[in-house]
Predict the 3D structure of the following.
Amino acid sequence: MTGESPRWVLFDEELRAGLRLGLEIETELFRLKTEHQDLAIYQTTKFGRVMSLDGVIQVCERDEFIYHEMLTHVPMLAHGGVSRVCIIGGGDGGMLREALRHPGVEVTMVEIDDQVIELSREYLPAISSGAFDNPRADIVISDGAAFLAATDLRFDVIIVDSTDPIGPGEALFREAFYADCKRSLTPGGILVTQGGVPMIQPGELSAMAERLGKQFQDVSAYIAAISTYGGGHMAFGWATDNATLRQHTVASISNRYAASGLKTRYYNPAVHVAAFALPNYIATLAGAA
């Protein structure tokens, strides 16, 4: 790009009114209108490769590990006895990669758009790191809400790695979906979801918390800062019937972390415990104030 003006891709995301995020790009690697959504993959100058769906950033190579580690290891280590996990969405494979790092755990991943998986394999292979071919992974191409409404399987942890509540992801924020999640969990199981950026998407987290509260005894959120989800902390919804599972000490999580053999870049036992210490405005939105 020597001698040329920088090229930028600007994201005016529907649920982020008044905020624009721009990434400097080298090239647009791929664009496709799939059966479900508009998919684009960019090579950026500083953040690696980035995938967007319907103009909304979904995954970025530079900081994806924060999102994937926090949405996976927090519930799995909080539970302490996970043998089966269900991931709803997650077509880039990052959540599957992290869940499969727990020895012996079997993972069912339900993705509505097979093109997301295939293009992630081709253009973002480092994110899945071979997870799609792991024998402990069962990849189901289906609508996640329909899958949980019909399945007889039971899971210790359900991870909802969805888009925002527009387009294909809208069904994954309805009360009926959360009821099916509750039915599909083993006793004391945990449901976690991506809950948006509360500073600029407050309604997403508050509506989620209200609907989850009709199904689960213990509903809250935890947080992490992820640069390409601009606007402050990102929230992750938390729901279970066992309130003790979000009240661990650093020492208790440290024992489980050591036993798991995990080596992580963002997540650690102290971060796990601290993530549930919510700023007041987020605690209010999550119904945990």
In short: Residues 7-60 form a domain with the Spermidine Synthase; Chain: A, domain 2 fold (CATH 2.30.140.10). Residues 100 and 107 are 7 Å apart (CA to CA). Residues 64-79 form the longest helix (16 residues).
